[in-house]
Amino acid sequence: MSSKTFPSLDAERRIFERGNRFVIGIDEVGRGAIAGPVAVGVSLIDKSSQDLGAWPEKLQDSKLMTAKSRTEIAKPLTDWVGAHAIGFSSNTEIDELGISEALRMAAGRALDELFLEASLRKLMAEEGAVILLDGSHNWLGKVSYGLDVQVQVKADTNCVSVAAAAVLAKVTRDALMQELDQKYPGYGLAGHKGYASAAHISALRSLGPCAIHRLTWLTRILA
After folding, report:
1. Which residue of 7, 36, 64, 105 has the fewest CB atoms within a 10 Å radius of its CB?
2. Residue 185: CB partners within 8 Å, gap ≥ 6?
3. Would you say residue 41 has pLDDT above 50?
4. pTM of this structure
5. Per-residue confidence at 3, pLDDT binned at 50, 70, 90?
């Protein structure tokens, strides 16, 4: 396996070596779509897990994987991570709040779900947890539960915890877009998943936007 393509636990192990037991990988999917929600995935990695080094070997940056490969590893990946959650912000929230605040809200919802279990919250407080966030800046802000946030460019490519969060979020969002395709036929949502493909833009010009389109994103497309 090429280290340039497949993620490792190098960043997570450096966090563990600083005395932390947990790493929470976070990444978003659907940011650039023009229809449907944005999703943020969070995955919890526990250094005390006996299976720490046994993540699914096909795991990569979700954007480099086929839909089939992502779906195939979703269940074993869910079993491997200590816990995971997916948070969403709707197209309406994106229009009303802007994409940055909508991403923050989705991340907060995912973390709220992750922290529902009081015993897990207690363990994190006692034994240390750090968030590993894909990107170039800390876009979580106040929703990070006061945890230290380590930002890393291309963490979705290089860090197992973040790649896992992204794949699980992508599989979940893709399944939702397939359901929405049945509810809003004619746009091809099951295929492009809400992104601005040529077929999607053509359908928009013919049919106009539907209830799940991000209207503030369509001004130039429909001009």
Report:
1. 64
2. none
3. yes
4. 0.94
5. very low
